[in-house]
C-alpha cells in the first residue's frame, strides 16, 4: 500500500496574495462614485489581520447576491475577493455616506424601518 505524503508547513501557512485591480478600473470606480473625495477618510481595511469579529445574519437571497457580486468582480476584474472584504468595503462606503450626508444618507432610511 502506498503512503500519502503530507504538505509541508510552508505550504499550509503560505501567505495568499490578491492582486490589486488595474489603476484604470480603480479610476472608473472612483469616477462612478463622484470622485475619490466622496468617501472621505473612510476606506475598507483590506487584507490585514483583523482583531475584532462580528456575526451578521443574512437571508439566503442576500447571500446569493453577495456571492454573485464576488463572482462578477472575479470575472470582470480578475481579482479574487472574499465575502469579508466585500462586506468591509460596503461598511466603509455606508459610514462615509453617513458622515457626508447625515440624515440624507442611504443609511438614514434604516431609522424609518
Describe this structure as you would to a colleague.
With 113 residues, the chain is an all-alpha fold. 45% of the residues lie in helices and 0% in strands. The protein is built from 4 helices and no strands. The chain has helices spanning 9-12, 23-32, 60-77, 83-101. The longest helix has 19 residues, at 83-101. Mean pLDDT is 75; it is low at 35-39.
Mean pLDDT, all residues: 75
**Which structural category do the helix and sheet elements fall into?**
mainly alpha
Give the helix tally.
Answer: 4
- How many whole angstroms does the radius of gyration measure? 19 Å
N-C termini distance: 64 Å
- Total beta strand runs: 0
Query: Which spans have pLDDT < 50 for at least 5 consecutive residues?
Result: 35-39
Share of residues in helices: 40-55%
Fraction in beta strands: under 5%
Would you list the SSEs in sequence order as H and E? Answer: HHHH
Largest sheet: none
General shape: elongated
Brief overview, please?
The protein is mainly α. It has four helices and no strands. The longest helix has 19 residues, at 83-101.
Topology overview:
Layout: H1 9-12, H2 23-32, H3 60-77, H4 83-101
